[in-house]
Amino acid sequence: MKRRTLKYRINWQNVWKKMRSERIRKPKIIYDKDFQIKSTEDFSNRCKWNNYEFGRTVVDILGDILDKGFEILEIGPGPGTLTIPLSEKVRKITCIEASKVNLQILKRNLKEERAKNVKLINEYWERAEIENRFDLVVCSHFLWMVDDLEKHLERMEQFSDRYCVIVQPCGRDEIVKKAFEEICNEKYTGQFEPDADYFAYVILREWSRTLNVRHFKYSFELNLEEGIRYIAGFLGKFIEVNEEVADKIRNFLIEEVGESWVVKNKAVVMWWETEK
Question: Which CATH class, in words, describes the domain spanning 13-273?
Answer without folding.
Answer: alpha beta
